[in-house]
Amino acid sequence: MAFVTKTIRRETTEPVQVIDITDEVKEIVANCGITEGQLTVISQHTTAFVNINEQEPRLMEDMVTFLKRLVPRDGNYAHNIAPVDGRDNAHSHLMGLFMNTSETIPFSDGKLMLGTWQSVFLIELDGPRKERKVLLHLS
C-alpha cells in the first residue's frame, strides 16, 4: 500500500480566522500518484483546527462571530494566569473543545468525495501566527 504525506503551510492574519484550503487539498490529491483511498487532514496545533463546512462569505463571518461569542477572550481563565508560551489564549483552547483536529475524506479517481457544498477549512483560533501547518496523509 502506498502512502503520501504533504504539508500545507499558512500564515494567519486574524485572531479568529476561517481559511478555505480546499483547492490546495484537491491539487495535492490529484497529483499524489494515488487514485483511490483516504485522505486524513490534521492540524498540528492545539489552537488551530480542521473543519468541513460550506464556503459562503457571510456564513464564514457568522462562524467567526459565533466562536467569539461562545468563548469570550476576556473571560477569567486560569490558563491565562501563567501561560506556557506567554500568550493569553485560554479562550482559543476552549473554543477548540468544539472542533476536530482532523478530518478523513475518501477520494476516488484522484478527486475528493466531498458533497456539493463542502469545503475544507483551517480554523485559526489564536492568531495571527507566522505559520500554521496542516498535514495531509493519503493512503
From TrEMBL:
Pfam families in the record: YjbQ
InterPro entries hit by this protein: UPF0047_YjbQ-like, YjbQ-like_sf
Lineage top rank: taxon: Bacteria
NCBIfam families: TIGR00149_YjbQ (TIGR00149)
Similarity section: Belongs to the UPF0047 family.
Name used for this protein in its record: YjbQ family protein
